Amino acid sequence: MRPDILTRAWVALIVLSGLSAVAAGLINRGVDIRVTGTAVLLLALIKARIILAHYLGLAAAPSWRRGFNLSLTLFCILLLGLYLIPAF
Question: Which of 40, 39, 64 is nearest to 53 (CA)?
Answer without folding.
Answer: 64
